[in-house]
Write a structure and sequence with these properties.
This protein is mostly beta strands. Helix content is 9%, strand content 47%.
């Protein structure tokens, strides 16, 4: 498990793909190795706890909805779960790589 202070410490947003609602809620990001991921972020508890789901992809040509719909029926080998905790003045994000055997949250599909 990796702990970071801000999502941008490890990931760079692909700006033209972002959907916003008080912050990015879905789009694409690249990690430090330039690997590409579709992501979704949703609140767990109000504005205090958030969950980010990152699914590896090879391009931004498909919609994030399509990527997550496919992940539901054909899970990736691995995906990334990030829990963002904003209860303190300094946010803390815990990053975990999970196998495809662990279901990816699909809260709004």
């Amino acid at each position: 498990m990796l702990t970071i202070r801000d999502i941008t410490d490890e990931y760079a947003f692909v700006n033209e793909t972002l959907a916003y609602s008080d912050g990015p809620i879905e789009g694409y990001v690249r990690d430090r190795t330039k690997s590409l991921y579709a992501f979704r972020c949703f609140p767990i508890v109000g504005r205090l706890l958030f969950h980010w789901s990152l699914v590896p992809v090879t391009s931004i040509a498909r919609s994030v909805s399509d990527v997550f719909a496919e992940a539901r029926t054909s899970p990736p080998e691995r995906w990334i779960s990030i829990v963002e905790d904003r209860r303190e003045s300094d946010a803390e994000l815990r990053v975990v790589v999970l196998s495809g055997a662990v279901a990816i949250p699909m809260d709004w599909d």
